[in-house]
Amino acid sequence: MDGTKEMGGLRNVSSVCSISEMDDFDLSRLLDKPKLNIERQRSFDERSLSELSIGLARGIDTFETTYSPGGRSGFNTPASSTRNSFEPHPMVADAWEALRKSLVYFRGQPVGTIAAYDHASEEVLNYDQVMYLKFHKALAFDFQVFVRDFVPSALAFLMNGEPDIVKHFLLKTLYLQGWEKRIDRFKLGEGAMPASFKVLHDPIRKTDSLVADFGESAIGRVAPVDSGFWWIILLRAYTKSTGDSSLAERPECQKGIKLILTLCLSEGFDTFPTLLCADGCSMIDRRMGIYGYPIEIQALFFMALRSASSMLKHDQEGKEFIERIVKRLHALSYHMRSYFWLDFQQLNDIYRYKTEEYSHTAVNKFNVIPDSIPDWVFDFMPIRGGYFIGNVSPARMDFRWFALGNCIAILSSLATHEQAMAIMDLIEARWEELVGEMPLKIAYPAIESHEWRIVTGCDPKNTRWSYHNGGSWPVLLWLLTAACIKTGRPQIARKAIDLAETRLLKDSWPEYYDGKLGRYVGKQARKYQTWSIAGYLVAKMMLEDPSHLGMISLEEDRQMKPVLRRSSSWTC
């Protein structure tokens, strides 16, 4: 197949670019990139953590602007710098082999990865269909690629110097954005990105075709709010990784960005700068009580806005969008840092709230009833530490911890430096609850009993400490690692990766784990889950070469760091 070669029995996708595509590359830096040193170097554990922390402290401010193209080395493992080289863990080769087996091709080009592939049964699980074509009396294989699921795989390929896969994915999903989107008789917004797409291989006609799903096939028929945000974030990651801005500057990509922005920046009846969302619109794609203004969507929204502003052309239309973005970012950062942030002092303040306050001098602006604060949060909150709570809306605060939203808040700099450090303090202080024996709890704590029946509608998959209801998801390892590196605490990531390495390969890379400590393979967890594999690889590569952080991290905008004042009577 064109553009591929066999290496060690595995498909290795070429990432060769033409000279015209490399106009923005610094070729001297490519030539100076250290070759792989196959002699044994000191492992991470043999080097002092303080040594790495010093290096991070010196370089953290330059991650966003550093261009560090990926490169391959060894047996399908990422390139290592001489200074930060690791002895590869035996799991790494297995992980790369499994990741490559998950690739989905469209007309000879890799365009994504399937969500899970069970090697034992040689059947693709859950996310595919095998359809019988009665007119041709043959089987057509239908492989499904989920947009959010592909993100860690995309980052792994970028860090390994294989950007072509990511480029094809970005262009194919952009093409699907232009399709008319209807659920029953209702037409979705023009900028909506698909939750997934299927590649239908017809062996009789020898043709490939794409079929997009914008939520009409999803559980509960909910459109994915996060897909467009992940697409923008991934486009920026591609640009940062390759140093090639020509893709983002294409007219069709500029139009795609603007269509997504038009959807989420439109004015309506909202009095808040946050996005109002339905349950099941993100990674937590089943009913779990996240309707309203979930932290995951708000953090991704913030990161996508900042990413888009860096890629929009400065023509007349582009400048107008940038102005709208800047205004929204200022309002959104103030709102999130003020009202979603919870630490010991803020918890104590909420506990002492008065209710039924009116006018602009109100302290309890959302009229939250103190008696609605759950008992567990008083014991969970350490003296040092804090986090962005799950949701804030009139008379309602969801005090649950959600890992993805808090990690993205750190990476996007939605969290201030002080807040980012407090989130890491909380993770360390509540390690057993949030990490346990397998990183990382998607949400904490689990809801159960009568609350579970009301909130989930008696969902048999989201029972307590399972799946989205307090389950442990290995894919979140890459987000935790990135947050640890950005905050200068790589030792936390190392500890989490060590935990994962004791189980993941032995358990055949499951989708999630169950139990308070994440001790048991999930009761309905798919084996050889692609994003569990990719999340591990991305975490390993970032810890090995922290400069990779630049493609998925944004430094704090000093202009968006206001003094947080809720009202003139806040301290009264």
TrEMBL record:
One GO-annotated biological process of the protein: sucrose catabolic process
UniProt keywords, alphabetically: Carbohydrate metabolism, Glycosidase, Hydrolase
Catalytic activity line of the entry: Hydrolysis of terminal non-reducing beta-D-fructofuranoside residues in beta-D-fructofuranosides
Keyword hit for NAD: no
Gene Ontology MF terms in the entry: endo-alpha-N-acetylgalactosaminidase activity; sucrose alpha-glucosidase activity
Domain of life: Eukaryota
EC number: 3.2.1.26
Function recorded in the entry: Invertase that cleaves sucrose into glucose and fructose.
Family: Belongs to the glycosyl hydrolase 100 family.
Protein name: Alkaline/neutral invertase
Originating organism: Populus tomentosa (Chinese white poplar)
